[in-house]
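Internal ticket - ligand job 474, NAP:
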Amino acid sequence: MQWGKLNIAGSNKDQKQGDAAINDPATGAPIGYVPAMSAETVRSAIGMAHDSLAGWSATVPQERSRILRRLSQLIAEHAEDLAHLLTAEQGKPLAEARAEIGSAAGYFEFFSEEARRLNGEIIASPRADSRLLVTHKPIGVVGAITPWNFPASMVARKLAPALAAGCTVVLKPAPQTPLSALAMAELGRQAGLPEGALQVVTGDAATIGAVLTGDPRISFLSFTGSTATGRLLYQQCAGTIKKLGLELGGHAPFIVLPDADIEKAATAAAAAKFRNSGQTCVCPNRFFIHEAVYAAFLQRFLVEVDRLVPGDGRDPKSTLAPLIDQAALVKVERHVSDALGKGAKLTRGGRRAPIGGNWYEATVLENVGPTMMVSCEETFGPVAALSSFTDLDQVKASVNASQYGLAGYIWGRDIAMLLKTAESLELGMVGINAIHLGMEMAPIGGVKQSGLGREGGHVGILEYCEPQYLLLGV
Ligand code: NAP
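stdout (structure tokens):
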């Protein structure tokens, strides 16, 4: 189908038999349709990616770099259409969608540069009659599965390093938001990606997942999504001993120390919490505010909360996105009622927004305790769970007791204290007086049950490579 100046090959404006609808979360109306592919079609997509591997991996890095840079430029040229498409299928405010498209272009630009720096190593030989060389070879065909909350940047974060390394890719985008991925794949074709190097498959997750994990022609499965699905895919990959990259769920703490700049901390806390209505893997899920500054923090935080306007993302006044679907709303309701049932205080929100649809009001809970659902698992909604503390060691113990270890935030002024506290937290990423962790040059990822491996940064391209050690007798 056509979207502005974008040709979204692989999607239909009108429903064909068996097609799945892509619904606008703001209106509930379908904006397009994609086919439900059979296992056989997915296998043939893998076959095409496999056939194109030899040619693509043999291109010189400068050529791959040139194509990826062109793709980055095409994304920038079509940014406005892509942002509107993203808002239409995902619901986030246009300003957030524009930022996400900028981030997607940034991933292709960064990895177009990394493609040219995939240097090997010569190891100092212990023997006069030999030389030890290490090169980085593309791992092969990559299976990529992405979630709906960042339909452009999560896709770019996988495609850019994989293609830069010389891998070919079969991508399964989330069923709620496949159009951004299909549009990017079409721009990739226009940028010069060879036939077969990037395949996008749509349809039933379990069917496609079983094929991608079971097929020996896939060498690496890169997944972003929930820990539960990651665990299942891990098991399914055992049969073919595939390498896995897993970017899974988070449960980020936001810690405010007594010497923090409260104005900045509270403003940043609200921005991080309510971006995409709390549907981000790195958004703070539990807030630990030192007792001495709790009242001041709350006062400033509520000012930010009261400014949020739920509404259609295309309306420039809207700053609070709808949740992706009714199931997400029900989960948020369950978390809030569980917290209230266990003694939390409701300070703001706590119900579906009066405008209806998939909106939930920006919600603030106080006196949150450790056994409440909001303290134990990702809420993935606009709910800020606040508690005060006096003993930082107890906060650290509580953070480290979680099975999740993706991201966290700490605010204060004593640099040594901030650094030592950040180092003591079992988290893959810590924002220290800062919240914008997701940058293409940084290694993104979590520890414990938040994932395996890293995306982005120089290590990001190495995830898609196998080192080969060559011993040369001379
Ligand atoms: P999800 O339910 O795990 O789904 C993610 C993707 O996996 C979707 O495309 C989904 O398709 C697919 N999937 C589900 N079951 C599958 C199976 N058996 N085989 C193959 N694919 C399968 O997660 P989500 O709700 O979409 O995304 C939110 C989660 O992603 C949160 O936990 C969030 O923290 C996490 N996340 C993590 C990061 C990070 O960088 N660590 C970034 C963004 C999001 P269906 O929808 O059709 O089931």
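Auto-summary: Residues 105 and 414 are 36 Å apart (CA to CA). The chain has 15 helices and 22 strands.
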